[in-house]
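Example 704.
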Amino acid sequence: MGVFMSRQFHKDLELDGSIKARAWDFLAKLNSNADLTGLDLKKPKNPADPKVRTARVDQQYRAVMFAVSDDTEPTWLLAAIKNHDDAYELAGSLVYEVNPANGAMEVYRPSAVEKTVDTFRTRPTLLDSPQVLPFTPEELIEVGINAEVAAEAVRLTSEDDILSLAVDLPAWQQQVLLDLATGASLDDVRATYGNEKPAAADDPAVAVRLPTSRMEFVYLDTDDELRRMLEGDFAAWRTYLHPTQRSIAYRETYNGPFRLAGGAGTGKTVVALHRTAHLAARGSVLLCAFTRNLAANLRGDLSSLLAPDSAKRAEVLGVDQVVRRVVESVDGHPGQPLDPREENQRWSRAVHEAGVPNDLAPSLTPSFLAGEYRAVVLAQSVATKDAYLKARRTGRGTRLTRVQRTAVWRVFEAFRRDVASDGRTTYDVLSGRAAEILADPELRPLAPSFDHVVVDEGQDLHAGHWRVLRRLVAPGPNDMFLCEDGHQRIYGERLTLGRLGIDTRGRSRRLTLNYRTTRQNLRFAMDVMDRAGVVDLDGDPDTVAGYHSAFDGPSPEVRGFTSDAEQMQFVTETVEQWLSEKVEARSIAVLSRRGTEQDQVRGALERVGVAVEIIDRDGPGDRDAVKLATMHRSKGTEFSAVVVVGAQKGVLPLDFVIDQLPSLEREAGVARERSLFYVACSRARDRLVVTWARTPSPFLPAPH
Ligand SMILES: Nc1ncnc2c1ncn2[C@@H]1O[C@H](COP(=O)(O)OP(=O)(O)OP(=O)(O)O)[C@@H](O)[C@H]1O
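Predicted structure in complex with adenosine-5'-triphosphate:
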């Protein structure tokens, strides 16, 4: 016999260390159904729900729970753990119900809902502002919204008010109102949260299986499951998925490559992890991250989701690790890849060696050549000059005549010779070789293979990567599952997956609920991003429609200064202030476009005795120190409080980088810089401060 546990109860287990220690005893007794006297079960006087009880967890804490089945031996639904007096008070007003519209399990306080509704009833309707919800109360009730709230909600003229009105409702109802306020239709809501109460939903064992119930409740029916839950830290994403996240992650079969889009913080990585765990129960899976350090983070998170016998079938690697592994399986050690600076030097040398005509040479910057190599040579597996002369160059900006193409090909050859001459290589060259190996019927069996590939941060992979990943799995059901956010593209060139043999058309979804950040921070980050001109990996416009967050916080602060020194002074004071408010140092980050600001911040913070740690290519370390990172390194991270420093002209976009680009590629270069700023701003969970010196960055949104 098991127990039902609410997300709130699960979270309360973290209240203080002593509860966790006692909880196992408590739950074991409850589960044993033997003598419950030690639990001191009590029914509060005149409870709102006769099924409610409180029980002793230890001296200080009591559990609030419901006897939810009609059997003589009740099954318990654990709702919360509170201090003795608070537990009694809560138990008096809490009810357990099954929503009549969709059968979702609900634990909430009707008296609190009524009180909030009362405060709204007395407010006059603002006749000159449009209502946010274009629905009737009956329509809202029909999808499951509390009737009293529905009557008031339709009068409201701001999203903020709707959230305040809904604050005491079960979480899924709050979510529905917010979805409707941000553009969802009633049909969307029915499809996502269900629109029919299953006949047997009064049996909690049935109700708990509904995806909407699973946003807040879990049924644990073995000691193993209970123990795992108690031993792990509370991380809601592991257990309480949004119905949309769940339906995407746990769908049995996609008949080919599937693409998941969504803004920053919508849980794409969470879904990728769950999908990997789901697939690992069936076959071998590669979860591919953009870098080694992002892979290391995912590996830790994945291990907590995998059943023991699936663990050996799931592997998590950075994309360049994958490439390297394929090459090594056939060629042995491939030589040390050049670092970006060395690579740039070699490209310049190759231009010189290849005797490029004077009129062309200035356009052949290292970034142009590396981009051309990835977007044309690797993307189309071009192996000869003739093939390059015929290759498609759509989307490359600069036009090249036949004579110029011949010259560029000579540069590629000179570059390869130069790199090979001292036993070195580059990651781009390696990905070309890996794709070649995987396409060769004789070599293919020597290389690793997987049944399924799941890719995170897909927007930053280049064509060479995709060729390798495509060939790593046999085409067929559930072969590839890709996550991307076109607005976060900070590396490389735009590409269309269809051209690389990865056809996701008709098999893609988009997540719109931001779980990471406040609505205030989200609004700011959305103002930063350039909504026009961003395309997804299918080559279609990437929309942000309906992208929203469910929680509130302080407004982001933008502060300008006349000098670097003043800016640093402010950054230091801000960080010190957060530390004094007991924000953990490791949850604070200062992000900058370039090393100059990072060095200044580091000096300024160290001078006042604040410990800092730079996020390097291995990702955030464990030290409890304020993290400093470039915007590039901030990808895939998140922090409670973030300062984005140096948001000023010349730095954002970074002139030095843009000036190096041939004129036709500047627009794309500026878009990447804007995306970097968006990535940095969208790392903040609670507080976001952006600073600049002298002249503000053109990317800064106009104040509202
Ligand atoms: N169902 C959920 N319940 C609770 N928290 C969630 C849920 N889904 C996601 N989160 C949390 O929201 C945050 C963002 O999730 P995640 O990193 O998966 O988003 P993402 O779309 O990959 O973001 P980005 O593109 O910015 O890297 C994380 O802290 C994650 O744990």
